[in-house]
Amino acid sequence: MLGDKIGEVKGKRLVRRVISVDPPTVEVTFEDSGKMFGVPVTGLGSYTSVIRPDGSIFGNGQGIETTEDGEGLSWTGTGQGRFGPGGSVSYRGMLFWRTTSKKLARLNNACSAFEYEVDAKGNTVSKLWEWK
């Protein structure tokens, strides 16, 4: 069951790199910033996406977020997506969290549902909800 909204971060896709053409596989790196449970964070992540024969996308990723006072939060995740107009991409999936942060302890060993959108210019928005 979806619970409380954890947060929202916005950022920019930095790099795209083709890893394979059979199957078509791309690695993407991005930076973001926003708030998690009201705590300001900045982060960096990367994911690998495989384009399936039906045009859908399956991805796996990992990343870190850091609070203003240096506490860390890491995630791994997986999701499914699709291409949109002008090269935009939309994903839905799950993230799995680990942290030693006291401010974000609620996320330690938790998982969350996410929506991840990348527009045609490479701007990203991630919205996260606790999964209870």
Written description of the protein model:
- The protein has 132 residues and is mainly β.
- It has a single domain (2-131), classed as Porin.
- The chain is 0% helix and 73% strand.
- The chain has strands at 2-21, 24-36, 39-51, 57-67, 72-83, 89-99, 111-118, 123-131.
- An 8-stranded antiparallel barrel has the order 1-2-3-4-5-6-7-8.
- β4 and β5 (72-83) form a beta hairpin.
- It is globular, with a radius of gyration of 15 Å.
- The model has no long low-confidence stretch (mean pLDDT 96).
Overview features:
single chain; mainly beta; 132 residues; 8 strands; Porin
List the helices and strands and how they pair.
Elements: E1 2-21, E2 24-36, E3 39-51, E4 57-67, E5 72-83, E6 89-99, E7 111-118, E8 123-131
Antiparallel strand pairs: 1-2, 1-8, 2-3, 3-4, 4-5, 5-6, 6-7, 7-8
Please state roughly what percent of the residues sit in beta strands, choosing from under 5%, 5-15%, 15-25%, 25-35%, 35-45% or over 45%: over 45%
- At the first level of CATH, the class is Mainly Beta
Helix amount, in percent?
under 10%
What's the architecture in CATH terms?
A: Beta Barrel
Work out the helix count: 0
User: What do the pLDDT scores average to?
Assistant: 96
According to CATH, what is the topology?
Answer: Porin
Number of strands: 8
* N-to-C CA distance: 5 Å
Structural class: mainly beta
Biggest sheet features? 8 strands, antiparallel, barrel
The number of distinct structural domains comes to: 1
Identify the strand order in the major beta sheet: 1-2-3-4-5-6-7-8
Oligomer: single chain
The value of Rg in angstroms is 15 Å
